[in-house]
Amino acid sequence: MAELLQPPGRIIETEADLAEGAAWLAGICPVWARVMPDLSPLPLRRRPDGFEAIAGAIVAQQISVAAATSIWARMEHAGLTLPDRIAQASDDDMRAVGLSRPKIRYLRAIAETQPDWGRLRELPDKDAIAALVALPGIGQWTAEIYLKFALGRADVFAAGDLALQEAAKLLYGLDARPSPAELRQMAEAWRPWRAVAARGLWAYYRQIKGREGIR
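-> structure tokens emitted (215 positions)
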């Protein structure tokens, strides 16, 4: 008998959802209560799910936000954000917009595979992440970014994100940037609104550093 999957939890669709999560965080943590008024309203950062969303997350892997934004703009100009155009483009075309060889390989493989994006919407967080991580070039960070921004999952947290680690260090006055495992443990206190906490940390990073921590 097939295993019955639990439906996804809370979905962030609107600014009102974010405001609810932000108010909850402020209610359970004096640090969030202190900074949240200056950070609100938090950016919604929702985007349509599917190939373009996962491609954007792949482009952003291990490079600065400015570099990722520039590459993505060149991809849009060249029409290389659609799976059929990726399949038809040459490696030279894709290198010309700034894509590395590994990212070209990942994008081609996913464009050819064409996962069932609609099915991902129905899966609980753990199973959706597992399905994404099974794709070429998709690690935990990329999968969690997709769930947060393309699927609107309210309780997903990308603990491997350097900007989140740095923001947590500064916000909580830590001596050192927390490791992914340490940050994930910190984030347990923010359930069931960890994706809102992530947006809050990115907003705090932007406020302190004067630049975006996520595209």
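The chain is about 60% helix and 0% strand.
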